[in-house]
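User: Need the bound-state model for glutathione:
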Amino acid sequence: MKIYGALLSPFVRKVVVAAREKDVAHELVAVSPGSSRPEFVEASPFGKIPALRDDDFTLADSSAILHYIEAKHPAPALIPADPQARGKAIWWEEFGDTVLGATTLKILFNRLVGPKLRKLPFDENVALQGEAELPAILAHLEASAPDEGWLAGGFSIGDIAVASALRSLTYVGHGPDAAARPRTSAWYTRVTSRPAWQAMEVDEAVMAARLGIA
Ligand SMILES: N[C@@H](CCC(=O)N[C@@H](CS)C(=O)NCC(=O)O)C(=O)O
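Assistant: Bound-state model below.
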């Protein structure tokens, strides 16, 4: 399958790590949001990354893509069967995408992507707003991070989504801080030490070096 996007995006990283966890063969096709490349436009009608192509099947949105991959490649499960564990895994994915992720994008787009990488309009006030939101969000994660293991029992899409957003924050000076948030930091280290994450990081390092943001 083809995954369209760039590993700077927490949503693209989520999908690539999930594919690697399941050992699903995939090709990451480098595409920026809004690309007019026809095969990308067909897969992502609103121009957002990631998008997926699996033979003649196309799909946009990281959560939709993760559900597709989970259904097609059930093992190892990244969405738990147990009702409470499943609810928590989806909650943490949602937190990663729409709470931490949304705040992350305010900072990432207005400090790095807009001004430095893509020369797009940006607004420093939005970045400052994101920074003002961050402490309460990170405090919730620190209070919830488990002493050992994962956010929703077994390793899940929740861990992948939240760690992916934290990884993007490292590019704008807000990476995990072991002194300030030791539980989050220890959990993040567990996630990012997994072979699937490490394999993704090799590709992410290449991208970061190419963009001069390593
Ligand atoms: N809910 C979507 C969000 C995707 C998204 O917002 N991606 C960003 C890049 S990190 C994007 O493409 N932004 C361009 C835009 O909003 O036009 C998902 O989970 O895939």
